[in-house]
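FW: tagging you since you asked about this chain on Friday. Here's the raw sequence from the shared folder, copied in full. Didn't touch anything.
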Amino acid sequence: MSFTVFLGNLPIWVTADDIKGWLSAENLVADAIKVIRNPETQESKGFAFIDAPNTEEMNAIIRRFDRAPLEDRLLRANPAQPPKPKGLVRPGNGPASSPSPSHGPSHAPTHTVTPPPTAAHPVATSPVVDQRPPRRHKKSANKRPPGGPQSAFAEELSKAL
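HL: got it, structure written out here
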């Protein structure tokens, strides 16, 4: 069993050494600390994972750091969720890897929506397909008819000729 703590809402300047110092100041023990960083910029993403040696230590870390103030924010500490496998469908969120959106008006995305069970409908027998119409571009309010003058200057010029 994993005893990993998710520590979130961290300022970007926080390092693993900072967290290690906070833990030792509180007489808390961690097996490993991993601050998650953007691979391109190496800037912190604002969260870290702390591996605790046992359940008691994990709960003590969570109690100490959940909603603890740091600068102008409150830290969040929770038991870490296991990582989601990439490429599989997540319930309610669609695919784990987000597809690139379609920007053309002729390609309307199709979404499969499965309604949650209710007292009236305990189990959905088939998914509901939601077909959204293509996006429409805003029309200009001052658009002039095709073939006619395109500006006030062009209008005056056509009258003069």
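FW: Helices lie at 16-25, 55-65, 152-160.
HL: agreed, and Residues 16 and 99 are 33 Å apart (CA to CA).
FW: great, closing this out.
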